[in-house]
Every structure is written in C-alpha cells, then in structure tokens.
C-alpha cells in the first residue's frame, strides 16, 4: 500500500492544485503590465489567506473556550479552594474505612431488613437513617460544596443531611411500596406523598446515581455447588467500605436539636459560589 506509485497517486490532487496555482502565476506569455502586478496579487492572496486562517482560528478558539475552557476555569475556584475536602465536609472526622462481608440475602443469609413487613423490620430500617437531618456549625457549612440554609432559632448552625441517609430512606420507601396491602393502610399525608409514583421514581434514580457514584469494584465470585453440579455467582465476599457505623454515630451526635421551621427566611452572609 505504501509503494511509491500509491504515494504519488495520493499526492496527485495536491500536486494538481499546486499546478493550478503555478499556472495562474505562469507569466511566460503575459504582458509586462501584468508582470508588474504579480507581486501585489500574491501579497493580496496571502493576506486574504492569513485573514481567513486567523478568523477561522478565532471562531474555533471561541467555540472551544465556550464549551470546554469556560467550564474548566469556572470550576477552578471550587476545586482549588476546597479540593477533596469539599466533598467530605462536614463529616470528614467520621470518615474511616472498614472491611465488611456482605450477606447473601438468601435463606440463612437473610438480614433483619428483609422478610414480611412488621414493626421490627420497620424499626430496623428506621434505625439506619431516622436521625439523618443534621445541624452543623457555620465553620463546617462554609466548607461544603453547596450553600445550605441557617436554622431559625439555632444561631450559627446550618441544616444538612448526609446523602447516605437520604438514599437509605429512598430504598425503604421503595420497599414499602412493594407491600401496599400492609403499608397502604392508615397512611399519613406525608407518607402518602412519599408513596407517590414521582417520589418513588426520584428514589430509584437517586439510588442509581449513588451506586454509580460509589462504583463498588469488589468482586463477585463463582462458586462450585456440589448438589447442583454448577458454578454459581456469590456476593458473600469482602468489601472495603466507608465505616457506616461511625458515620451513623457522628450523624446522631449532629442530629438537629430544634424543629426546623422551613417557612422562616433567615438573612445569611455565608456564600459559596454556585457553578451552573
Ligand atoms: C387502620 O385504622 C383502623 C381504624 O383506626 C384500625 O382498625 C386498623 O387496625 C388500622 N390498620 C393498620 C394496618 O394499622
Ligand atoms: C451545588 O453546587 C454546584 C456547583 O456549584 C451547582 O452546580 C449546583 O447547582 C448546586 N446545587 C444547589 C442545590 O445549590
């Protein structure tokens, strides 16, 4: 393919265009007056090409700036000022890693979060997140990636929730939605609105994003089962996890201590820049 014949064939169009250009400037049989104009024409053409190239460059550069660099530069202040700590405020002191072995969720590997709906199953779930709404001091609120609201009646404190508790709440709502015969009775207005299809849909998508965000790369393995003579996948393996118990203890210590009146507007001079 890279033979000289093919090479010359590849270059043919280029050559012919040069030839056209040469022909244009071929002055062997033109009048003397045209010969005099020749350098000027060449300068004008070169100038036009330069202007065109500069213009194209500006258009392309502007487009690149708008789509890529403007965002990049705009995001700079947040990443420069807060770096990784921005994403672990305000619970950074409670952040530790722990090795957990997952339960299979089948048979004897079932957990207290499974099974027929009952008061004890409900309680187990509630214990995972019911303290999730928190109050954090202004110094911590200032380290967060987003602005949140000050708490009326609790000066210097701001309201927040660690997303893990929100995701657990969402999973519990989906679980309850699967047993309408049990949870459909005597629902409060709040409970009814949590069971609405749009909230369930929000919850499913929130859990999807959370799973993708944490992207657990622990490995599922295949295990030989003697009784069925087949290799079956098993998830009862070790995972390196953020220590949930520690985060739960930390959250309980920061559980909001006053009723949050969401209808009270609080003046606030804490301002974290917002990037759309
Ligand atoms: C719902 O309320 C009715 C009447 O107050 C009561 O008899 C029934 O046991 C309640 N059902 C549940 C599941 O709590
Ligand atoms: C949180 O911050 C990010 C980055 O500034 C911004 O894009 C997003 O809209 C903010 N969300 C809220 C609810 O303020």
UniProtKB/TrEMBL annotation:
GO biological process: mycotoxin biosynthetic process
Keywords: Membrane, Transmembrane, Transmembrane helix
Keyword Transmembrane helix: yes
Pathway(s) of this molecule: Mycotoxin biosynthesis
TM spans (from-to): 43-65
Coiled-coil intervals: none
Similarity field: Belongs to the ustYa family.
Stated name of the protein: Tat pathway signal sequence
């Amino acid at each position: 393919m890279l033979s000289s014949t093919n090479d010359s064939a590849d270059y043919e169009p280029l050559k012919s265009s040069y030839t056209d250009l040469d022909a244009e400037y071929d002055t062997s049989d033109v009048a003397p007056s045209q010969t005099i104009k020749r350098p000027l024409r060449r300068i004008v053409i070169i100038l036009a090409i330069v202007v065109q190239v500069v213009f194209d460059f500006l258009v392309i550069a502007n487009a690149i700036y708008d789509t890529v660099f403007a965002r990049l530069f705009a995001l700079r202040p947040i990443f420069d000022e807060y770096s990784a700590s921005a994403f672990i405020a305000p619970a950074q002191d409670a952040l530790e890693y722990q090795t957990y072995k997952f339960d299979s969720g089948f048979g004897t590997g079932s957990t207290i979060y499974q099974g027929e709906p009952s008061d004890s199953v409900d309680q187990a779930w509630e214990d995972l997140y019911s303290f999730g709404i928190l109050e954090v001091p202004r110094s911590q609120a200032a380290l967060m990636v987003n602005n949140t609201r000050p708490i009326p009646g609790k000066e210097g404190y701001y309201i927040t929730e660690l997303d893990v508790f929100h995701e657990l709440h969402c999973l519990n709502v989906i679980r309850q939605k699967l047993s309408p015969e049990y949870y459909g009775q005597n629902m409060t207005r709040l409970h009814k609105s949590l069971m609405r299809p749009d909230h369930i849909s929000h919850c499913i998508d929130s859990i999807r994003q959370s799973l993708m965000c944490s992207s657990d790369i622990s490995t599922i393995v295949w295990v030989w089962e003697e009784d069925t003579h087949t290799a079956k996948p098993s998830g009862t393996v070790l995972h390196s996890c953020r220590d949930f118990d520690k985060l739960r203890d930390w959250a309980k210590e920061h559980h909001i201590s006053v009723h949050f009146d969401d209808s009270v507007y609080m003046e606030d001079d804490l301002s974290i820049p917002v990037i759309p």
